[in-house]
Amino acid sequence: MSNDKLILEADSLHKSYRMGVAKVRVLKGVDLAVKKGEFVAIVGASGSGKSTLLHILGALDKPDKGVVKFEGRDLSRHSSSELNRFRNKMVGFVFQFYHLLDELSVLENVFLPVMAGKSVVGWFACRRWAKSRARGLLEQLGLSERAKHKPYQLSGGERQRVAIGRALMNEPRLLLADEPTGNLDSATGNGILEILEELNRLGQTIVMVTHDERIAQRAGRIVTLVDGKIA
Ligand SMILES: Nc1ncnc2c1ncn2[C@@H]1O[C@H](COP(=O)(O)OP(=O)(O)OP(=O)(O)O)[C@@H](O)[C@H]1O
Ligand SMILES: [Mg+2]
To answer: Going by CA atoms, what residue is nearest to atom 4 of ligand 1?
Structure first.
């Protein structure tokens, strides 16, 4: 396996949380390599550190020790503005509880990442394109009829599809999903997994976290987080 095929490399990640006087060691030397185009599931019991790991991989949090490399570059060497750009452009996040903004319409939620990455002038220059891309994503996700709705007017499965649209808006190199079906019944969750599978067939690299082995089976590769390490 040549190194240029790797999109993401985690090397000996450590992370602890301090709770008063006690220190909870969550990650104790996690190593992980993800190739471009892979669909990897990370499984582990509740509390095993899956979300902690995913947040570190997406630069939402920092490890105490260890290195995350994205396309060969060490994230700890990025300036804070480079990290903001990384989070906005390179990775897309999908969360269990959607994290949509209820004040905005479905369409606005989807194009928000483009708006957030631009100055007022920059946004003005690209807003027609952004809105049309967002409409295209909603169509692809079967949500064309919901563009003007507010998230609270949608079902859970619809909300998660909106969140996937938002995550894809900036054409991220990597999609990170934390229990994307965790709040859905199994038929609706299955629809979300089918979307992820289809995105992966089209070339999207995906890292998904779940405590459910059956859901993990849908990925191309499963790694297990036990006792702070990848087993
Ligand atoms: N900000 C924090 N402060 C203190 N402890 C934390 C913090 N975040 C996580 N932890 C602890 O770290 C451990 C791992 O948490 P994490 O959320 O990564 O687990 P998880 O595998 O995602 O669990 P779940 O499947 O329930 O989502 C837990 O014991 C948790 O209580
Ligand atoms: Mg979690």
So the answer is: 17
